[in-house]
């Protein structure tokens, strides 16, 4: 049977990482992969995570299975972090998943089960896994305009116009904050307008929130998802702890299905547990337990928040430094959007040819769509990147 297999498209970012490793130049800069790195180029284990892990090792009495939806205490802690008190708890079904990707995948499967004819509207561009998983699951993806490369901001009129092409029951996938790959986000007026459109047209929002705390702050970054969740009859939320807890490899995510009709028979909750059972049975527990331990311990929570805030402010400072340097070199404000963007990424909005030129001429490694990982920079490499951008003629 294996002779029938066809090669699948290679992951472009992983291929880029390999090229970076093979590049002998000292000044090379890796802006490709989507993990946070500090000024030393290290993806650190957060202080609170270390303490929580030690506590779990010391105190954990069993490793017997948890529930199919994971430990309910994890769901409660995450719901509190993401939604605060925007939605009553009994309206939320939730299940732990292997990372945010697991939550995205399970959400798509749930959509397919509940409404096989639904299409999913995705931003242009979006995280490539959204599109590839939709294809794999067999759901039609429809693209809505989002990023305006000429301004570096959201093309909001285009977005609304395209969403008007959705029909009742279609799903609209939104990034909760820190849009990947563009870094351009909706403001509160725009979130409000999207909510009105969703309700007018009977569209179901699905919010993917993978960077809470990386943009404007933990509460600020959740404002959009809270508004959506409290204003529409039904919605889905896929959350990831990979970035804000720095536990990438622990595969820690949560899928929420919210229904304002309540969940009297527990049908939504049972369906999420069923979906887990079919795909991998019990979800991973270690990362979820670390997150629960941190969020439920005031001291650990405070320390985690402080370290996350330092991370966020560090990325903002790099954004400002890069925008300033580009302003100085170009004598114009046309790169000002880099300081306006939020999160780990910014899309430069240039061509694959110029991205390639920057790699060949200056050892700058960014994804072909011109996404740069701000956290891949430090104070010394910002001027190198700025010069490469100007020299390439971006
Ligand atoms: N959604 C978006 C938009 C992301 O950028 C990511 C991380 N690259 C995820 C979901 C999921 O990440 P993970 O599966 O590593 O938790």
Automatic annotation (TrEMBL):
GO molecular function: identical protein binding; L-aspartate:2-oxoglutarate aminotransferase activity; L-tyrosine-2-oxoglutarate transaminase activity; pyridoxal phosphate binding
A biological-process GO annotation: L-phenylalanine biosynthetic process from chorismate via phenylpyruvate
UniProt keyword list: Aminotransferase, Pyridoxal phosphate, Transferase
EC number: 2.6.1.-
GO cellular component: cytosol
InterPro entries xrefs: Aminotransferase_I/II_large, Asp_trans, PyrdxlP-dep_Trfase, PyrdxlP-dep_Trfase_major, PyrdxlP-dep_Trfase_small
Quaternary assembly: Homodimer.
Family: Belongs to the class-I pyridoxal-phosphate-dependent aminotransferase family.
Name used for this protein in its record: Amino acid aminotransferase
Organism for this UniProt entry: Tritonibacter scottomollicae (Epibacterium scottomollicae)
């Amino acid at each position: 049977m294996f002779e029938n297999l066809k090669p699948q498209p290679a992951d472009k970012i992983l291929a880029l990482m390999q090229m970076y490793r093979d590049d002998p130049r000292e000044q090379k800069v890796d802006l490709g992969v989507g993990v946070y790195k500090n000024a030393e180029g290290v993806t650190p284990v957060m202080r609170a995570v270390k303490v929580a892990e030690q506590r779990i090792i010391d105190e954990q009495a069993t490793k017997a299975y948890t529930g199919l939806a994971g430990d309910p205490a994890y769901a409660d802690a995450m719901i509190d972090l993401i939604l605060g008190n925007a939605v009553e708890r009994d309206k939320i079904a939730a299940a732990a998943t292997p990372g945010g990707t697991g939550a995205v995948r399970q959400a798509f499967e749930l959509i397919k089960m509940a409404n096989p004819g639904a299409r999913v509207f995705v931003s242009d561009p979006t995280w490539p896994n959204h599109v590839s998983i939709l294809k794999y699951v067999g759901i039609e993806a429809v693209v809505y305009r989002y990023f305006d490369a000429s301004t570096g901001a959201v093309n909001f009129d285009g977005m609304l116009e395209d969403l008007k092409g959705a029909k009742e029951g279609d799903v609209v996938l939104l990034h909760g904050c820190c849009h990947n790959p563009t870094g351009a986000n909706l403001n509160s007026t725009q979130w409000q307008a999207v909510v009105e459109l969703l309700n007018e047209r009977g569209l179901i929002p699905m919010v993917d929130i993978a960077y809470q705390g990386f943009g404007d702050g933990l509460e600020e970054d959740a404002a959009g998802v809270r508004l959506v969740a409290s204003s529409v009859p039904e919605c889905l939320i896929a959350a990831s702890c990979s970035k804000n807890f720095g536990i990438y490899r622990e595969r820690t995510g949560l899928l929420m299905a919210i229904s304002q009709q309540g969940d009297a028979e527990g049908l939504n909750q049972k369906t999420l547990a069923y979906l887990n059972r079919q795909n991998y049975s019990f979800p991973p527990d270690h990362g979820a337990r670390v997150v629960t331990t941190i969020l439920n311990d005031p001291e650990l929570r405070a320390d985690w928040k402080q370290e996350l805030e330092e991370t966020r402010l560090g990325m903002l400072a790099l954004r400002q430094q890069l925008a300033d340097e580009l302003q100085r070199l170009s004598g114009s404000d046309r790169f000002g959007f880099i300081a306006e963007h939020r999160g780990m990424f910014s899309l430069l909005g240039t061509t694959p040819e110029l991205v390639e030129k920057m790699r060949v001429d200056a050892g700058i490694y960014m994804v072909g769509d011109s996404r740069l990982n701000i956290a891949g920079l430090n104070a010394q490499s910002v001027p190198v990147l700025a010069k490469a951008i100007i020299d390439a003629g971006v």
